[in-house]
Amino acid sequence: MIKTKLVTREVYEMEDVVCDICQKSCHVSGRNHSYGTLKFSGCYGSKYDLQCVEMHLCDECTFEIVNRSTTENIVQRESPWKGMFPFNE
Q1: Which of 19, 22, 21 is nearest to 35 (CA)?
Q2: Which residues does 39 contact at the CB level (< 8 Å), separation at least 6?
Q3: Which of 29, 31, 53, 56 is within CB 3.0–4.6 Å of 40 for a Cys-Cys bond?
Q4: Is the pTM of this model over 0.85?
């Protein structure tokens, strides 16, 4: 015989994703969200050791960063991430 009991649990459901750069909603239609995630973890022994950043970005900001990084990196050979993160430089 299998005995059962009713268990009630609170469940968190994603309501929205807000872009960390422009603060716009990433909600598209119905229950869909369209966003990108940018993650950074400082390497062991580097000046950013133990620092982690995770950003959720709308499509426009995601592609702005991608376009800027590829264009600026080719033209100027500078880091496309300079000034974007709140690290002590």
Answers
A1: 19
A2: 52, 53, 54, 55
A3: 53
A4: no
Strand ranges inside 1-89, DSSP E? 35-41, 52-58
Tell me which residue range forms the domain holding 59.
14-79
In a domain, residue 4? The reply is: no
Report the distance separating Cα 36 and Cα 57, nearest Å: 5
Domain count, the chain: 1
Contact 55, 38 (CB under 8 A): yes
The pLDDT tens digits for 34-86 are 888 888 888 888 888 888 889 999 988 988 888 877 765 555 555 555 666 55
Burial class (CB in 10 A: 0-12, 13-18, 19+), 49: exposed
Q: Tell which wins on pLDDT, 89 or 82.
A: 82
